[in-house]
Amino acid sequence: MFNFMNHQKFGRTMLNVSKNIVNEIFNIIKTRINLFILELKEEKINFIQLLLISGLTVFFTAFGIISLIITIIWSINPQYRFIAIIINTVILFLLAILFGIWSVTKSRQLTLLCHTYKELEIDSELFRK
């Protein structure tokens, strides 16, 4: 009889331990999903702001450059205006290429979900131990 009671206690403690482990794993997964959702929302807001700011910047910069080019071309002697237009066009294309390369390199440095990846690495290290 004594042996049967010990087996019941052992079974209950094993059941409680396994239930606690499952609860902890579930809480970890729930926390990581919430962190993932929060980071996605933050990145979405940052991305929309970046698009709006860059769009307005491009819009106003284009009008400023067009006004400046028109002023420069009007001030040049009529026989050299065509050469001035070609030089301005080449300079603007070079600037467009440089800024294009710069934007591609910046887009590769995005930090989307970096905190989630760090937390998942910590969790995987804890589970390995």
Report on this structure.
It is rod-shaped and about 105 Å long. It has three helices and no strands. It is an all-alpha fold and 129 residues long.
SSE diagram, text form:
Layout: H1 2-75, H2 81-107, H3 114-128
Q: Could you give the count of β-strands?
A: 0
Measured distance between first and last alpha carbons: 38 Å
- Supply the helix-strand structural class: mainly alpha
Classify the helix fraction into a percent range.
over 70%
- Number of helix segments? 3
Poorly predicted sequence stretches spanning 5 or more consecutive residues: none
What is the typical, i.e. mean, pLDDT?
A: 81
Largest sheet: none
Q: Over all CA atoms, what is the radius of gyration? A: 31 Å
